[in-house]
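Intended use. Records such as the Multidrug resistance protein B entry shown here are meant for training and evaluating sequence-to-structure methods. They are not intended to support clinical decisions.
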Amino acid sequence: MEQNMNTPDKPPYGILAVLIVGAFIAFLNNTLLNIALPSIMTDLKVEATTVQWLTTGFMLVSGVMIPLSAYLIQKYSVRNLFLTAMGLFTVGTIIAGLSHVFPLLLAGRMIQASGTAIMMPLLMNVMLVSFPIEKRGTAMGVFGLVLMFAPAIGPTLSGWLIEHYDWRMLFHFVTPIAATVLLLGFFLLKDKKEKVHMRLDFISLSLSSVGFGGLLYGFSSAGSKGWDSPHVYLTLAIGAVSLIVFILRQLRQDNPMLNFKIYKYPMFALSSVISMIVTMAMFSGMLLLPIYVQTIRGISPLDAGLMLLPGAIAMAIMSPITGRLFDKFGGRAMAVIGLTITLVTSYYFSKLSMETTYTQLIILYTVRMFGMSMVNMPVNTNGLNQLPARYYPHGTAMNNTMQQVSGAIGTALLVTVMSMRAETYGKELAASALKEAAAAGKAVTPAVQAELEQQIAMQAMLHGINDAFYVTVFLSFIALVLAFFIKRATQAEDTIGKKAPAKKHSHKLVNN
């Protein structure tokens, strides 16, 4: 039985309000953690390639769970799905806040992810079916404004909490809010849904889990084990083969778990690719900058958070504006301008040095986020607008899956580039320093050697971060080229399930 996709006369503002508050808490939790990564590395004694699993692992679970969302949205009511999602998120937050070893913290994050992965596609689907296509850009813009408020306050709030309390306070702070939202959902959400008979394909679920999981784990492991390690390339090969089999299986099924047939709509396919690339580029700034400013430059967590604040505010302010501009001008002009800004600012971020000022970092990051605000929402909305209404759950599920997977792969790839290039630069700088000392006839005492090693480590990591940002320059250029092919989408006609009238004078359609 198909889900009813008719747009209501009046949007369900009460349901939307509860869903948006829940999504806001999930977004806030993610932005709180980025500033805390250096503190967690020090406290739990883990390296950058390990701590990045708090981000990659979160996205890995999301990438596995989100393909289920199209099935779940069609089978269960908004109320049941929201309560389940918010319940999982709350439990995960409590576990993470009580963790004193890294594996327990990672487990808490993954449980959080299983809840967030259900919540976001659910909210997007309710938004799509609640507003007509001509008002959808504005509605998505207002929705984006609410959600972008989380990144606006998250880093600064995180920096203040870490300076005054232990990093676990980040989770203790979120727990009572999440529990309150869960109770609000329990009492306020009253929607009902007819019983839908749908069967979950466990073979497809297994293939997608192994496929996405293998690729993400392979990319993440390359930073510590190297690309020539069998542990890396065998995992990548298994993941790639499983993913290919998964896609072929979905294409043959009448009711696939993740409907890849929606890629036959060109604007949706194009928007999906551009969005994936932009997501990879965006996470570079969120992950690499806190490491640079705190580990290399010694800037406090609070100042690091304040540095990201103007960029997040700019993105939040632009969200409703880009929604209105999209309704008026379409997605191509906005995507081209936004990606040009992203490309230029990414290039300047690849030139960071020990002399780069705090003001320069603020300006660069703010302008970069301003550019990105003009890309994701307009491009995604334009792609979804081309889909027939019955494909909305599949479209939102596919978009969220691809963004989570690309974000996780992008994070893993960029951290791997940073780590491997830093190691290479470290060896080169150490060899050069020893040659200079030998040529000058200077004796290298243990104290001098320790200071020298620390300086070399900082310089090597700086070069590694610059190289990782340079990868985002290349990615941004590809997205910019693709943006020129965007056209304003019109909803494709859905002819499946309809028959022509039997007689010329008949005014009724026969529904199968």
